[in-house]
């Protein structure tokens, strides 16, 4: 069992493995009171006035208590982050890192702006960690790129992947959770999807081209494209969504 888990962990691509490790270590550290969440949460005032820049990063690493909700988000993080990095971004680690950086920037900016809008400021004032929203963004981007894959929710409702974000959003409403966490992920995910996949097809320009200094951080190996005779087609598997 331990060997299987070790092999599964080692087979993860670098960004997924690094983010998952940082999230688990940070959350366990806070649970054991080795780390205080008070030095991790997003606080724009402390970032600007006291230059606590690390908060712009650490608020994406803490997933609160070690409970079923934590396991749920670790499942989604390990699954959909891995699927994106190994498929859509295969051989493009720098582009994948830039996608996460873009998503984190959009989420942070949206929370800051939302905190200044009447009727929304009270809801946004309670958002201190954006880790769940960044995970939801990755789910949204994967679903937009794979909209026809068949899925099921709790083995009861079947649908195609394009509807998964809205199914999860509806489930959050049913259990009384804050919908803003999911909505922020949808906003960031759709912003990336539009600027990366839709806008270039309309205008021929790609506004989210990865900067060269980020590409220099990663040594991506060229992707080997199979010849037509080597291509095999398989029916998409049914994806079982665990209980949230």
Automatic annotation (TrEMBL):
Compartments where found: Endoplasmic reticulum membrane
Record has Endoplasmic reticulum as a keyword: yes
GO biological process, one term: ERAD pathway
Membrane-related topology note: Multi-pass membrane protein
Gene Ontology CC annotation, any one: endoplasmic reticulum membrane
Alphabetized UniProt keyword annotations: Endoplasmic reticulum, Membrane, Transmembrane, Transmembrane helix
A GO molecular-function annotation: signal recognition particle binding
TM spans (from-to): 20-41, 96-117, 123-141, 148-168, 174-195
InterPro entries hit by this protein: DER1, Rhomboid-like_sf
Described function: May be involved in the degradation of misfolded endoplasmic reticulum (ER) luminal proteins. May be involved in the degradation process of specific misfolded endoplasmic reticulum (ER) luminal proteins.
Family per similarity comment: Belongs to the derlin family.
Protein name as it appears in the record: Derlin
Organism lineage string: Eukaryota, Viridiplantae, Streptophyta, Embryophyta, Tracheophyta
